[in-house]
Amino acid sequence: MHANASHELTTWGVGPWQGEWPEGAGSAEQPNPDSIYDPELLTNGDTRNVLDKYRYWKMQAIVADLDSRRHNFHVAIENWQHDLNIGSIVRTANAFLAAEVHIIGNKRWNRRGAMVTDRYQHVRHHSTVEEFIEWSKTAADDGGKLPIIAIDNVPGCKKIEQYALPENCVLLFGQEGPGLSDPAIEAADVVLEISQFGSTRSINASAAAAITMHQWVMQHVDFSN
């Protein structure tokens, strides 16, 4: 927590900044418009659910900092039935610093589960699976195809625990219940399943997305630094 932050904590944040404003922020009488700090938050407190590092920062400053170090995987979700899991998947994508989230199908999606993390996470819409496939053909860093890694438990799929996920890829998830559509499965470079050991046939879509993103992180993030 910042040394000059108020000790009057709210549920998710801190109260008004105490004493002189942080370096570069200017003052209450003359805020610096080029500062990363938000004058309104410094004056009234910051109740957002953000890391302490980002307390009192402007939203665009937080996004810019995240953009400077985002991971190389994308997340895609089919949205044909207004799936309530989409918001939770966006929130998890933000937590694991995904490059971008892609909503395939209906443009409107339930944002409640995102807990406003969609303000910090890039989200792109594709009307159809075909449109999404066209995007993937030139979406890699070198302008080539970005591999589509589908997650579903269909015949012929491979186990995610035994698969080396590409560093640059898009992780594709279906809806709760029906799973991925046939066109989405056909478009995938590979279909992976998450090993399960209980009686249920499938796990929650948002849980599957979280497991998959963490699997990518465990394979590609250096934790020694």
UniProtKB/TrEMBL annotation:
Q: Which SUPFAM superfamilies match?
A: alpha/beta knot (SSF75217)
| Gene3D superfamilies in the record | 3.40.1280.10
Q: Name one GO molecular function term.
A: RNA binding
Q: Name one Pfam family in it.
A: SpoU_methylase
* Keyword tags: Methyltransferase, Transferase
The record's section on InterPro entries has:
Alpha/beta_knot_MTases (IPR029028), rRNA_Methyltransferase (IPR051259), SpoU_MeTrfase (IPR001537), tRNA_m1G_MTases_N (IPR029026)
Q: Residues annotated as region Disordered?
A: 1-41
Superkingdom is Bacteria
Q: Name one GO biological process term.
A: RNA processing
Q: Where is the tRNA/rRNA methyltransferase SpoU type domain?
A: 73-214
**Record's PANTHER family?**
RRNA METHYLTRANSFERASE 3 (PTHR43191), RRNA METHYLTRANSFERASE 3, MITOCHONDRIAL (PTHR43191:SF2)
Please identify the protein, giving its name as recorded. Answer: rRNA methyltransferase
Q: Which organism is it from?
A: Candidatus Rhodoluna planktonica
